[in-house]
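Q: Could you fold this chain for me?
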Amino acid sequence: MALGVPGVDVPAVLQSHRRRLVELMQAYTTLKEDAVDDMRVALVVDAELFRLDALIRWLDSADARVRAMANAPTTDTSTQTSLVTRRTIRVVT
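A: Sure. Below is the predicted structure, expressed as structure tokens.
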């Protein structure tokens, strides 16, 4: 969403979000260390740590794309937009 707001430093927004997620991971790691004897807590914390790790990886990927886009030569964005709007995702349940 930050990409659509003029004047926003998108890499800074991504870095801020990443920093907060790392802080959360540290808090969950401490919680896990404090609950060594409680398997239920350990499993829930592990799930949350994996989720946070996935988010951080996604932020790293997004950051790389944003930086690559900023360094790329100027192109016609109308073509890029039309490619994005044509893509659909089907969810099968």
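A (continued): DSSP finds three helices and no strands in the chain.
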